[in-house]
Each structure stands twice: as C-alpha cells, then as structure tokens.
Amino acid sequence: MRSFLPLLVLAAAASAPAQISTPSAGGFLLPVESLASPSLSSQEPPLTGNGAQELLDFRDADIKFSLDRLMDILRDHQHEGWVMAAYPDPTTRRPLIGAGFSLDVQATPHPQRDPLNPYLFVEPSTAQLWQTAGLSPDRLQQILDQFDRNADTWTAKQYRRRVIRHTLTPQLTEEEATRLLRISAIQAVYNARGYCRGFDRLTAPQQMALSQLVFQMGTNLEAFVEFLGALNDENSIRELPLLDGYMETDAEHWRTVQSALIDSQWARRYTVRAATVIAMFDPNYNQQPSAAEQRVQAILRPPVEYRPKPRSSATLRVASYSKHSARSHGRKAVHSQVKRKLT
Known about the structure:
By secondary structure, the chain is mostly helical. About 50% of the residues lie in helices and about 5% in strands.
C-alpha cells in the first residue's frame, strides 16, 4: 500500500479547457490544443508576464539534459514530424507545421493549484509563441490563409499524399522551424517544472522524459492522476512510515512511477515511443539504457506463446483415408482409359 500527498493541481483536470493530443505518423502525441479556435488576429500582443520571461531567459544550464537532443527526437525526419508547410492533423484536421507546431491555438488558462510547487504554467496562444520565436505575425496569417485554401481544394487523402511525398511548397525555412521547435521545447520544460515539484532533483533522462511527455500531451497530462501523484511523492514524504510500517525505497518509488505510465492507454497504443520514455524514468537508465528499455518493452509487448494444436488420431486416420482414396481413384481412372484404348 502507498500513501500519496494529494495534488491539488489534479483537481482541475476535469474542468480545465480540453487540449487534444493526436498522434503523428512517427508515433508522437503532438499537442493540438483547440479544435474550434477562431481566426487568429495578426495584431495579438506579444506574450507578457513571468512565464514569457522564463521562456526568453532560458539557459541550457537550467536543465541537466541537452535541449538540442530533445529537439532532435521531436524533429522526426522519417515521418511527417518535420514539415515546412502547414498540414492537417490526421485526426482533428487542424493546421500544424514544423514538428507539430499548432497554428491556431488560443491562450489557455492553466492555474497552478499545487501550493507546494512555486512554478507556474504558461499556455500562450500560437500568435504569442510565434512572436516570441521572433517570427512575423503577418507570416502566420498568410500561412493560415493558404492552409484554408488548400483544405478547400484537396481531400484529406490528397493533402496527406502531398505531405508524405514532400511536395508541399515550403512556407518556413529550416532555421525558422527550428526556432519554433526550440521555443515549444522550452515551454514544455517550463511546464514540466509545474507538474513536478522535484524537477531539479530528477536525473537528466528523467527530466527529458517528463519534458517530452508535456510536449506531446499538453494539458492532457493532467489526466494522468496516478502518474503525477507517484511522481510528486517526494523523498521527505516517502520516508514517513506507512500504516503497515513499510517504507518504500527509491528504486521501488521509480518502479511505481513507471508502472503508472505502463498501465495507461497511451503506453498501450504507442508502445515503441512509450517504452523509451518510460524507461528513462529508471534512475539507472544512463548505465544501461538498452536493458532499461527492454524491460519496459517486455511488459508492454509480452511475447506471444505459440501452442500448436494437437492433431488427434481420428484426424490422422481421416487424412490417411483421403490420400488412399485419391490414389485408388486415380489408378481406376487410368485403368479405364487404357482399357478403352485397347478395345
């Protein structure tokens, strides 16, 4: 039995504005925060407040892992995870660009309800993030207008075919798309601190794994109540004796965190990506990353036992009789033909 300190931030999960996350062809869950956002205004003011300043003031030394490495994972060149023109989300049909950057999202209230976590969430609109990345607001509206024209002209299959074949006219340069990806990744890191009180104490792989989850799921991560509860079950709390006198070790704590993700529908649906992310929560991941991933994969995708069906003696007798009958029938047929020729 375990004892978790309730997370007040999770109480708002049911009433928080829905943010939909959908999978890309590469298996990522890409944040598509609004399904019915109104047209974006090119006059929307730049992002302001402490959250924006955190994004702008981010330094690589603020985290233990390499932000460039995280961006390389999110920038999926093999699939539609890195497209230089607006394309429709496979499920919601809303416009994405680059590494799944949503092009029509409105700013979303996301209050921090955990009194033990000093970090706030920041959920800006597309236009605000776009300007924070240093891109022109007019460019954003032009890209949206072209997307609407294309969506009116092409069917979903025709649009997807152009994405897969890389025949869409580029609307961003590699450098511009990288700037959008970087500011989105920094936002994910910033919000990961909002989800985890002890973010700074996590190992480098654990920080990267949580940041990747936030990038992929947006505020949908609020629904992972058991996972967030286990994640925030801090050392100072876990050291208190439980009712049965049992104290959980650090290794057991992280196995509990991993189990909470393994039991999720997300992990069962996207086993390849999920196995890597879940394995990174192992505190010893850096020592044997492949072994850590194999342990998770063995749970997510257990080997299927093949049990050949036994062949009964009756079945064998029927098969033998059929073959015998066929051979006899063949000989009779040949004999008759020969006899007729001779006569």
